[in-house]
Amino acid sequence: MSHRNAPLTPTGRLRLARCVVEDGWPLRRAAERFQVSHTTVARWAGRYRHRGEAGMRDRSSRPHRQPTRTPPAVEAQVLRLRREHRIGPLRLAARTGIAPSTAHRILGRNGQPALAACDRATGEPVRRYERSRPGELVHIDVKKLGRVPDGGGHKVLGRAAGSPNKDRRNGAGYAYLHTALDDHTRLAYTEDLPDETAPTCAAFLTRATAWFAAHGITIERVLTDNAWAYTKNTWRRTCHELGISPRWTRPWRPQTNGKVERFHRTLLDEWAYQRPYTSDTERREAFTDWIHWYNHHRPHTGIGGQTPASRVTNLPEQHI
CA 229, CA 209: separation in Å to the nearest integer? Predict the structure, then answer.
């Protein structure tokens, strides 16, 4: 690729070469006209004579011989260990006796993606997708979260005194965070509900549909896992009444619903566990501001640093 100060682009090189080869310009006249040296003119004219237009493109700067390159047998061993054990450059280097930087280059030139971009079960690169319009697919899932007892939990009182949720009779209990997240925009709607039964899930879908409709999004499909509540007639009937097509993930493949799973991890890191809370009421009150910030102000790396609200046309409060 030409650098930013290059006087000739491939198109300019072609014009220069044609002036010399086809129109018979002297080298020095062409050099003065195109503001380059006469040796540059001679080089591009020579390439044009031998290779035509194809000779005007940039060539690789890789040397023809690389006597210090890693032997093919070692390179094959690195790729085999990566494939069989799914380990990174540091551990590959320890097993093969090469430098970690060498192992990294071997993986790179053989098209091996980073381990973080691979499926843990199969080792295959994760195929990421995104629906083309808001509402085309909405991911739904439930996150179970221990409630904060009055006076604070273990972050305030310590592990020994702050684990009342383990007490089934007198514990603070659990919150069931139901979330609907739009695949295209990442706009999220979450409710703190007392359980995850079929009627509760169906009622949540009804309210989520109304909430998205108020924001100009019509839900066409919903994707859930195969939890008991999502396989019952109550869920199917509610979807039918709302004009929504239900979809389910393949068994034992939670990554299919990975966008809402990742949202729940963000929710835990940036809201639920972000600071010590002295009561569950205090944490619930903080959620209202957090979800507004997530939807309207937080840059989302999965959509190029945009906010979810910015991907919805004419969304109210988009710039508040």
Answer: 18
**DSSP class of 114:** P
How does pLDDT run across 246-285, given as a tens digit for each residue? 999 988 777 788 899 999 999 999 999 988 888 889 999 9
First to last CA, the chain: 43
Q: In this structure, are residues 148 and 172 in contact, taking their beta carbons and an 8 Å threshold? A: yes
Task: Express each pLDDT in 214-228 by its tens digit.
Answer: 999 999 999 999 999
Task: Report angle CA 109, 114, 119 to the nearest 5 degrees.
Answer: 125
Tell me the one-letter amino acid at 303.
I
Assigned CATH for 138-311: 3.30.420.10
More confident position, 84 or 318:
84
Q: Is the pLDDT of residue 126 over 70?
A: no
CA distances from 9 to 6, 240, 295 (A): 7, 59, 44
Question: What's the rounded Cα separation, in Å, for the pair 149 and 224?
Answer: 31
> How many Cα atoms within 13 Å fall on the side-chain side of residue 49?
11
Domains in the chain: boundaries:
10-56, 72-117, 138-311
Identify whether the C-beta of residue 82 lies closer than 8 Å to the C-beta of residue 111. Answer: no
Give the CA distances from residue 199 to residues 173, 206, 223, 230, in Å, rounded to whole numbers and listed in that order.
20, 11, 17, 10
Instruction: Find tokens 């963000």 and name the residue.
Output: 266
Indicate the SS3 state at residue 180: strand
User: What is the rounded distance in angstroms from the CA atom of residue 62 to the CA atom of residue 198?
Assistant: 62
Chain Cα centroid distance, residue 263: 12
Q: Which residues pair with 221 in a beta bridge?
A: 245
Give dist(CA 153, CA 36) in Å, integer. 74
